[in-house]
Specification:
With 249 residues, this protein is α/β, with parallel strands linked by helices. The chain is 38% helix and 18% strand. It contains 10 helices and 9 strands. The protein binds ligand BJW and zinc ion. Ligand BJW binds next to helix 2, strand 8 and helix 10.
């Protein structure tokens, strides 16, 4: 793991508003596969690019519903890791100093909330919410796997996962809150995301345009690695706790 540069530590200390964008890499150390490596391992038979679309659900609702239900059950057994905990601790430290801290997550697993992060903005919805296509009723589902796929609403309608698929708009309230948090922050942090999926991928560019200090934490280089102020290469579960400990003690 790379060491924490002194200048970065100083920037964290000076920040009055930190906005953090998280992606699947933050939950990888909780045992949840990321999207761009999901073609290996136990989900090798599924290609997220093929399944995370409205067209895929129309074509084969049973298959897509099973994939999401399997992920929901897998998530139920997952625990937040050291990266989630470090972000929650960073928020607590920041808020005690009267400063702001916002987590914008592309993840649908709710592990940030489980770790204690507050006011998390869910850009891509949630695995726990399922929505009826006929009456729009939304319900949280924390029970065992559904007996039939796709699950049905009390009204008889088909229910779909309450997530945002390719080609769909992000929830307006989440997008508006995210834009406000990107515009207002003086330190923007991108963690565990390939920075490929819009509109979240553009938040970094927006921050750069405003002259905001920027940090990336990722195992691998990404399209934003060369433009951020600091790009730390390594596991989020190692780097974030080290960063937070180095400033908040
Ligand atoms: C670690 C690690 C460790 C691993 N520590 N790091 C403009 C231009 C071109 C295209 C578009 C555009 N605007 C919109 C689009 C279309 C599309 C898009 O962006 N396509 C791109 C592929 C180009 N976007 C949309 O359709 C969005 N809607 C929208 O913009 O509406 C308006 C509009 C529509 C159409 C046209 C124009 C405008 C909606 C996007 C919804 C994305 N949905 C998904 C599925 C959610 C439900 C589910 O969970 O199944 O969201 S797709 C998937 O990608 C998921 C993720 O949230 C998202 C981002 O992935 P993420 O989190 O970055 O994961 P990975 O796997 O890519 O990366 C993991 C990273 O972690 C890697 O870098 C690893 O190295 C790292 N890592 N372990 C630190 N321990
Ligand atoms: Zn219904």
């Amino acid at each position: 793991m790379e060491s924490i540069p002194d200048e970065l530590r100083a920037a964290v200390h000076a920040a009055r508003h930190v906005t953090v964008l998280t992606g699947a890499g933050v939950s990888a150390e909780s045992g949840l596969p990321t999207f761009r490596d999901a073609l290996t391992g136990s989900w090798a038979k599924f290609d997220p690019q093929e399944l995370a679309t409205p067209a895929a659900f129309q074509r084969n609702p049973e298959r897509v519903s099973r994939w999401y239900d399997e992920r929901r059950c897998h998530c139920a057994a997952a625990r937040p890791n050291a990266a989630h905990a470090a972000l929650a601790a960073w928020q607590t430290w920041q808020e005690r100093r009267g400063a702001r801290f916002v987590v914008l997550t592309q993840n649908v697993d709710r592990l940030h909330q489980l770790a204690g992060s507050r006011n998390v903005i869910e850009l891509h919805g949630s695995l726990w919410v399922w929505r009826c296509l006929d009456c729009n009723a939304e319900n949280e589902e924390h029970g065992p796997a559904f007996p039939i796929h796709p699950p049905r609403c009390a009204c008889g309608g088909v229910r779909r996962p309450g997530v945002v698929w390719f080609g769909e708009n992000l929830p307006l309230a989440a997008l508006t809150a995210a834009q406000e948090a990107v515009e207002a922050c003086d330190l923007f942090v991108s963690v565990g995301t390939s920075a490929l999926v819009e509109p979240a991928a553009s938040f970094l560019g927006e921050a750069l345009t405003r002259g905001t200090r920027t940090l990336e934490v990722n195992l691998e280089p990404t399209p934003i690695s060369s433009v951020v102020d600091w790009s730390l290469r390594g596991r989020a579960g190692a780097i974030l706790p080290a960063l937070v400990a180095s400033v908040a003690g």
